Each structure stands twice: as C-alpha cells, then as structure tokens.
Amino acid sequence: MANRSGNFTVALDNDTAVRKSLTNRADNLIAGYTYIVLSIVGFTGSILCVWAIFTRRALRCPQARPRMTTITSIQPIFVSLCMSSLIFSVVCAFQAYSTLAGRRNFLAEPANDPLCQLIAFAYYMISPVDQLQHAALASHRFFAIVATSDRFARLRSRTCTAILVAVPWFLAALSGVLPFFHVGLDYGYNDELDRCFIVQVHTWRYVQFNKTFFIIFSLGSIVVCYTAIAVKVAVVHRRAMEVHVVQHSFLQSMSSVPLQAAPPPLPSRTIRSRPGHTRGAGVTKTVVALCVLFLVSFLPWMIYPLAAKTDVALNTPPGLTVVTLFLLGCAASPWLIVLLTPTLRNHVTGQLRRIGSSTFTT
C-alpha cells in the first residue's frame, strides 16, 4: 500500500513537472514571437531616425545654420536614444532565436558562454541607459527653456550636451559590468527562460539597487525639470496675456479719441516671438511624448520584479505583459522622434516624395 502511495506521488509530481514545462515552453514561444516583432520595429525605427538626422540638409550645409538651433543641439541625445534602441533590437533578435529554438541552440553551448554573457549584459544594461537618457532629455529641455540667462550659457553648450549623452552610458556600463566579476549576480544561459539572462543572484540588494536607483533618479529629474518648465511657460503665458489686455484696452481708448499724435510703441513681444520658446516647440512635444512612453513602459518593468522578488518571474503571464511593455517602449522611441519632431518628419516626407517622384519618372 505504501509503495502504491509513493508511486502515485511520484507520478503526480512528474505530471506537474511536465505541465509546468509545457506552460513555460508556451510562454517562451509567445515571448520569442514578441521579440521578433519588436526587434524589427525597433531596428527599422532606429535606422530611419539616425538616417533622418544625419541626412538633413541643414547638417549637410553648415553655412545654412550659422548658430546651433534647438533641433541640432538635441540631436546627440536623440541619436544616443536611437543607438540604445538599435543595440536592444539586435539583442532581441538573439533572444528571439534562442527562445524559439529552445535548449538546442548555439547560445546554450558552454563554448559560447562569453557571447551569451555579453548578450545578457547588453539586455541588462540598456534599461538603465534608456532611463538616464530620458532624464537627460528632461535636463536638456530645462536648460533650453528655463535656464535662458547668459549666466547659464554653458548649460546650453555642446560640451554640456556631450556630457548628457555620455553619462547614461558610463553609469549603466559601470553598474552592469560587475556581474562579469561575479558581483551581485551572474550572466549566462537561463534554461528556464531559454535565453541569455540572469542565471544566479548572489545579492538581491544589487538587483534592488539597479532597479531603484536609476528609476528614482530618472523620475526625480523628470519631475523637477518638467515642473519648472510648466511653471516657466505658465508665467510667460500670463505675462503675454497681460500685454494683450493692455494693448486691447489702449486700442479701445484710442478709438474713441481723435487721432492727434502717433501712439507710443507698446510691447508686442510675446512668448511666441522669443527665440528660446518657439524654436523647438515641436521638439518639446516630442520629449514630452517620450516621457509619457517612458512612464507607461518602464515603470511596470522596474516595479514588477521588485514585487516578485525575482527577475525569473518574468516568464509568467503578468511578467510577459510587463516585458512586452518594456520592449515596446524601447522599440517605439525612435518612431516617436521621427514622427513627432517637425524637422525630421518633414525631411523624411520630402525624401520619400523625392524618391517616389524619381521612381515614377524613370
């Protein structure tokens, strides 16, 4: 009787293990196809965005741009964001291959463990890079709209923009390289997820630090910068409305009095005529849209693993949803830059029309 009970328990455990394996495999297949779609979207968007930036006529003709405008000053950050999306798209292609191929793929072989660790490093590092890049975008708009005094001219210089580009990559690489020395966690091929990822966590505090520090720093920078921008825009708009009211009252009073002399000049310069405000209004909208995308896609990806106490939980249905949002955010960023920035959008549209017209004429 005891043997029968023991055999029944073993059979039940085996059946549970088989069902769990099949469920994990089904989830991994869904993740693999998601990787493929978003990898293609992110790759094409990144290439299109970088192509649009570097083929603009203003860049090819320096004499047409005697001074650095808003779009050209923010271009390095846009390019950096596109490059992170491009790297992530390539990594997703490898992840899609291993996830769909299953355990039998070349990335799972011990001889290719260095390549697998490098892929896991890139996958793990790009998230902090993207987060800090959004903080850099917010800081750039703060310097361009709020810190307009000549005392802060250096904050709007190319050197400052270069620092805003370099710091996210440096900090993320500095944090992500530690697992190569078995500090915090280990990179490698994860048999459960069928992809190059985290295989062992030595110190959960290391994971918590990476999840919390970058997101808190980025969110704090975004909140502070955009709050200051909103206050500045509201103040300037109120002053413009006051000038409009004064002008309207003056014109009404002059209409009821015989014209004896020319009226004194009135201040007619509003926020729309100031060089720091209209130049790059479309760029600011693009940055705000990127910020909204960041909040929607990155926050759940950062919070869920902390609540689940493990990144491996991302192979569950809720985890897959969170990962999909994160991947969508990385893939959609270059498309938002191209479609919402008027200069780039008009350039791409003009190039497509030129190509189309030349095709039909030939």
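^ that was protein a. below is b, sequence first then the tokens
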Amino acid sequence: MDMNKIGDLANQHSDKVNSAVDGAQEQHADKLGEHAGLVNKGVDGAQEKFLNDSEEQSGGTPA
C-alpha cells in the first residue's frame, strides 16, 4: 500500500479517529497531572496537521 493510499484512508476516517483521540484525552487527562495541558495541545496540533477532514481538503467549510 503506498503512502497516498494510507493518507486517503486516514482522511476518510478522520472523524472517527478524532473522536476516539478526543475521548482518550478526556478519559486520561487526569493521569498526566501538570502536563495534561501541554500533552493535549500537542495531540490537538497533530490531529489538525495529520487528520484533515474531507471537507477541508475539498475547499469546503469544516463541520
């Protein structure tokens, strides 16, 4: 499987991945103690960079 296909699959399912990651952040934030904010900020940045929703990529308005 080439990297373009992997990227396409990630983008097709980005809403599900984002939802699962957001749930994990909420569930485990207390375990990160004083670093929770910094870790969550990094995770949110990675979600924005790597998991674009399909509307954003097609020029539409994200939901």
